[in-house]
């Protein structure tokens, strides 16, 4: 499949991509997968740098929403000398962080991995896994990321590394692994979000380091700002919804959604 990148993204496309990014970055349905499907079926393929720039809005939403927990983490580390949660977050971030530095450019330009068929297959496979994991007994709500052992935190990190493949989902992989490691659905989601913060800071830092990337963002600043505002608002709503939903329910709904979406996309591709 030949991927053609558009030098310019219209305001309407920017808003659509921002909403898709914000809604699906934290809900475990794969933002990268939805962006690939949205672009291939509804619009032209946006430049991969534009898609990367959407992390500004979603990261801002995450930091603002979790600011009380971030302040609490700061107090625990520097005043109470309780390093357990900070240690686990660092351990979990290492595998995805290292692989991301090595493979990010390859993945963003891979015609195979960015193919809607590949994305749909990954959506379905992880969806099935979510339905299966949802059968696990729900642990005590008191179990949090702090209670993970270093080894279990590393297992979650290794699972998160698979999210580099479009269609897997960073939040989905960490929530699934955290559930297997003994956390409740809500606690697993909260840990997934806390782990996402340093990862996303790293992605943005990488984007800002390259002069060519900075020049691209300056050239397309208007649509990038609009897209990030849309992503920010959508992400706030998505985070709030997911945490409230998982406080009473499991992952099965999202698993079935992924399976149905994958089936629809594959059917459309076969009919084209």
What structural category do the secondary elements indicate? mainly alpha
Strand order of the largest sheet: 1-2
Fraction in helix: over 70%
Q: What kind of sheet is the major sheet?
A: 2 strands, parallel
Record keyword descriptors for this entry.
two-stranded parallel ribbon; mainly alpha; 272 residues; globular; 13 helices
Describe what this molecule looks like in 3D:
The protein is mainly α and 272 residues long. The protein has one domain. It has 13 helices and 2 strands; from the N terminus they run βααβααααααααααα. Helix 2 packs antiparallel against helix 7 (116-133), helix 7 (116-133) runs parallel beside helix 9 and helix 9 (170-180) runs antiparallel to helix 10 (185-209). The longest helix has 26 residues, at 221-246. Residues 1-7 have low confidence and may be disordered.
Provide a quick synopsis of the model.
With 272 residues, this protein is an all-alpha fold. The protein contains 13 helices and two strands, in the order βααβααααααααααα. The protein has one domain (5-271).
Write the layout of secondary structure elements.
Blueprint: E1 5-6, H1 11-26, H2 31-42, E2 45-46, H3 48-53, H4 55-65, H5 67-78, H6 84-108, H7 116-133, H8 150-161, H9 170-180, H10 185-209, H11 211-219, H12 221-246, H13 252-271
Parallel strand pairs: 1-2
Helix pairs in contact: 1-2, 1-12, 2-7, 4-10, 4-12, 6-8, 6-10, 7-9, 7-13, 8-9, 9-10, 10-12
């Amino acid at each position: 499949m030949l991927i053609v990148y558009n030098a310019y993204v219209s305001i309407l496309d920017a808003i659509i991509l921002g909403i898709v990014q914000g809604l699906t970055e934290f809900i475990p349905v794969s933002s990268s997968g939805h962006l690939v499907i949205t672009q291939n079926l509804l619009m032209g393929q946006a430049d991969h740098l534009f898609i990367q720039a959407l992390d500004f809005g979603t990261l801002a939403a995450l930091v603002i929403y979790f600011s009380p927990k971030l302040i609490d983490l700061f107090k625990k580390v520097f005043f109470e000398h309780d390093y357990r949660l900070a240690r686990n977050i660092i351990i979990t971030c290492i595998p995805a962080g290292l692989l991301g530095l090595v493979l990010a450019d390859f993945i963003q330009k891979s015609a195979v991995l960015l193919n809607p068929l590949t994305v749909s297959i990954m959506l379905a496979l992880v969806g099935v896994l979510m339905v299966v994991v949802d059968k696990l007994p729900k642990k005590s709500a008191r179990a949090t990321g702090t209670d993970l052992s270093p080894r279990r935190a590393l297992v979650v990190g290794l699972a998160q590394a698979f999210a580099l493949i479009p269609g897997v989902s960073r939040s989905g992989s960490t929530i699934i692994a955290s559930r297997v490691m003994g956390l409740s659905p809500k606690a697993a989601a909260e840990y997934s979000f806390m782990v996402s913060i340093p990862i996303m800071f790293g992605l943005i830092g990488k984007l800002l380091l390259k002069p060519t990337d900075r020049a691209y963002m300056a050239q397309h600043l208007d649509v990038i700002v609009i897209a990030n505002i849309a992503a920010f608002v959508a992400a706030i709503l998505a985070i709030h919804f997911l945490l409230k939903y998982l406080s009473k329910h499991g992952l099965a709904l999202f698993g079935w959604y992924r399976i149905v979406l994958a089936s629809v996309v594959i059917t459309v591709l076969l009919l084209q």
